[in-house]
UniProtKB/TrEMBL annotation:
SUPFAM superfamilies: Periplasmic binding protein-like II. Keywords: Signal. It comes from the Bacteria. This is ABC transporter substrate-binding protein. InterPro entries: Peptide/Ni-bd (IPR030678), SBP_5 (IPR039424), SBP_5_dom (IPR000914). Residues 90-423 form the Solute-binding protein family domain. Residues 1-29 form the signal peptide. It comes from Streptomyces tauricus. It holds the Pfam family SBP_bac_5.
């Protein structure tokens, strides 16, 4: 699947001093130094692709965590279904499917092998999906979903407790990747040498690096590059510097502050379904009071944050769903709002993380705005791996998060449920509201199409009416690609990056 790319020119600023990260990509056994002309079997010129990524693994690259999206971006692990540009389901490891009430039957592709040489079968699909469905916590794509999986000859049947129109889209989530039996031998799930993609994950160096080699037995055809060398570089300035110094071929998530320092021809800006939101703790502390949540909403000046922090490379939010979903604006109506109350010096703590370089600056801007409104504000900024558990446990009065809104299923109903349902697994706001839950349940049960889109916007309105979340802006992906990189993906969903077609000249 090839997602369309939208290229938006970025203005270049005067050159700045370049950080030299000598040795950042050194040490690989195969460093991509070959300059051959190809072998006639899909290889381009023998060079390995060097990638600088933002977030290091949080769960040892377990596919049951957000690390699954790294496996997907490296084309190491695959799912039964993929999504096209509109979010509609397309065949991948499954060749097709049909629905009969609560049961969906998926045909499994023949001739597919895992990286350890074992064959993809209906039983291996059942094993992977059952492990995900019974995990604790579940992958968020299965929030509120009870399903059972069984083999039926060469097919697999998936049965849900309630009729679910989104089963194919759910199965496209990288967190439901299909892996070989070897991946499940321990207490944790290890994807090393266990995927089906064109690249095999061969080595993981903690949170510093990963190595992938071309898998010549790939069912979709031999990859053009012999492998991928990944370095995790959380610092945005250092990450952008790897492109300027020639040490990386692909740099994901270039910070806004660094984009102008790069050659504009090497930078691609892609609108994406990602919202920068201020989540307010509705269960404990000052923001248990709806009137104080309203006061916080009125104090936030998102336009000044877009101009000052993002240098205009973001869109002011009108709701939780942004311009990457163009139908949302046309359906949205003004939400009902609670009358605000004076903060009168109420003390609040706002948490966020520096992994996305702009967030600490956003936090500082919000601190000033909320203090001007009458709050006393303290900031707590820690790396995401060290702060996520506290955020989910409700340890903050407010939390700033850059959140993808259709990351998992291509449908925003799953994100809304995960973040705002009383039983949602990512409910940072600790929200428990009967009207919100009812609206979310309705959206989840509505068939795909215009009716579902309307019910999704109704659910968004129910959430906004609580002021449990204050959407501020919608981000854009800024990605840096060296001049010699060919056919790298620019994916607004952040699922694809290096594919079988990607290579370095």
């Amino acid at each position: 699947m090839r997602l369309p790319t939208r290229l938006l020119p970025l203005s270049a600023a005067t050159a700045a001093s370049t950080l030299l990260l000598t040795g950042c990509f050194s040490g690989s056994a195969t460093d991509g130094s070959s300059n051959g002309e190809g072998d006639g079997n899909g290889a381009a010129d023998g060079k390995r692709v060097r990638v600088a990524m933002m977030n290091p693994p949080r769960s040892g690259l377990s596919p049951l965590s957000d690390d699954a999206f790294k496996l997907s971006r490296w084309s190491a692990a695959e799912t039964l279904v993929t999504l096209d540009a509109d979010g509609d389901a397309e065949p991948a490891l499954a060749t097709g499917w049909q629905q009969d009430g609560r049961t969906w039957t998926f045909g499994i592709r023949e001739g597919v092998t895992f990286h350890d040489g074992t064959r993809l079968t209906a039983e291996s699909v059942v094993r992977s999906l059952t492990r995900a469905a019974t995990a604790s916590p579940k992958p968020r794509i299965l929030d509120g979903v009870e399903l059972t999986v069984r083999a039926d000859g060469d097919s697999v049947t998936v049965t849900t407790a309630d009729e679910d129109p989104l089963v194919p889209q759910r199965l496209s989530s990288p967190q439901l990747s299909i892996l070989a039996a070897k991946a499940y031998r321990g207490k944790t799930v290890s994807p090393v040498g266990a995927g089906t993609g064109p690249f095999e994950l061969t080595k993981v160096n903690g949170t510093s690096s990963a190595t992938l080699d071309r898998y010549d037995g790939y069912w979709g055809g031999r990859a053009k590059s012999p492998g991928i060398d990944v370095k995790f570089v959380p610092d945005g300035t250092a990450r952008a510097a790897t492109l300027r110094s020639g040490e990386a071929d692909i740099v994901e998530a270039v910070p806004v502050s660094q984009a102008a320092l790069l050659d504009e021809e090497l930078v691609t800006e892609v609108p994406m379904p990602r919202t920068n939101t201020l989540y307010l703790n509705t269960a404990d502390g000052p923001f248990e009071d709806a009137a104080l949540r309203a006061a916080a909403r009125e104090a936030v000046d998102a336009e000044s944050i877009v101009k000052g922090v993002y240098e205009g490379r973001a869109d002011v939010a009108k709701g939780l769903l942004g311009p990457a979903l163009p139908w949302a604006a046309g359906l949205r109506k003004p939400a009902e709002r609670v009358k605000s109350a004076a903060p009168e010096g109420k003390k609040i703590t706002i948490g966020t993380f520096p992994d996305r370089a702009e967030l600490p600056e956003v936090a500082q801007a919000l601190q000033q705005q909320l203090q001007k409104a009458g709050f006393e504000v303290k900031l707590d900024v820690r790396e995401y791996a060290n702060i996520e558990s506290d955020a989910l446990a409700g340890e903050f009065d407010a939390f700033i998060l850059s959140r993808a809104t259709i990351l998992d299923s291509g449908d925003p109903a799953a994100y809304l449920y995960s973040d705002f349902a009383a039983e949602g697994s990512f409910n940072i706001s600790q929200l428990s509201d009967e009207k919100v839950d009812a609206a979310l349940d309705k959206a989840a049960g509505t068939r795909t199409g215009d009716a579902r889109r309307r019910s999704v916007i109704d659910a968004e309105a129910a959430v906004l009416a609580t002021d449990a979340a204050i959407p501020m802006l919608h981000e854009r992906v800024i990605q840096g690609d060296a001049a010699g990189v060919v056919d790298v993906e620019h994916d607004p969903r952040e699922r694809a990056l290096v594919t079988a077609d990607t290579y370095v000249k």
